[in-house]
Amino acid sequence: MKKIFNRVPEITMIFWIIKVLATTVGETFADFLSATLNLGLGVTSYIMSSILLIALLNQFKLKRYVPASFWFVVVLISIVGTLITDRLVDEFGVSLITTTIAFSFSLLIVFVFWYSNEKTLAMHSINTAKRELFYWVAVLLTFALGTATGDLLAEALKVGYAQSALIFGASIAIIAIGYYYLKMNAVLGFWLAYILTRPLGASIGDLLSQSPTNGGFGFGTVGTSMLFLSIIVSLVIYLSFKRNKPALQTSDRQD
């Protein structure tokens, strides 16, 4: 009988750490390409979307969770999701309130279709191409929504990057308390936290990379992106070795 593998990782502390780091890179690296390198939002969007498409095709071919492939796609989706929102706001003049509402509604529609087709939104059950497709569409929308929400709070409402990070961090902490102590539904808790980690990471990225005159620490998009990318790569290498070690030990028995 053919064995079916889950295509996404288990939800552990390392998962959340890499997720926040990836969202930070999505914010800073998108700014680096479009502004620092002067590629512009349009050209940057086309380039990164093409790379994302290639990475997704490879991800679907694997039919199982491979840390390097999975997290590479997450980082790329973080960048593309940021660019989608930035283009809507900066190039097409759509307000942050409108984009926040639109992406929230779009994400809700995806969840409704996903659940009506598969009867579950659980991470541990993403073991078919169809479920994985729903998953990646939802993830892309969470990144676009998180970008809009983060910018709305930090910039449009002038709350500031540090204060916004604290607000989103506190919101995630409340969800964690609800899950561990108040019996919140695990799937609901996961997706709420997943959505909120995007504006949390974006606020942290802006706080580190923006100039002091704009309320940041002035580390720049290059330094911030490289720092967080190096941490992500280190953690993914660790996960790859950790995952492969048991497989090598039990390969004879599985054959």
From TrEMBL:
The chain crosses the membrane at residues 12-33, 39-58, 65-84, 96-114, 134-154, 160-181, 188-205, 217-241. This is Membrane-anchored protein. Pfam families: DUF347 (PF03988). It comes from the Bacteria. InterPro entries: DUF347. It comes from Dendronalium phyllosphericum CENA369. Keywords: Membrane, Transmembrane, Transmembrane helix.
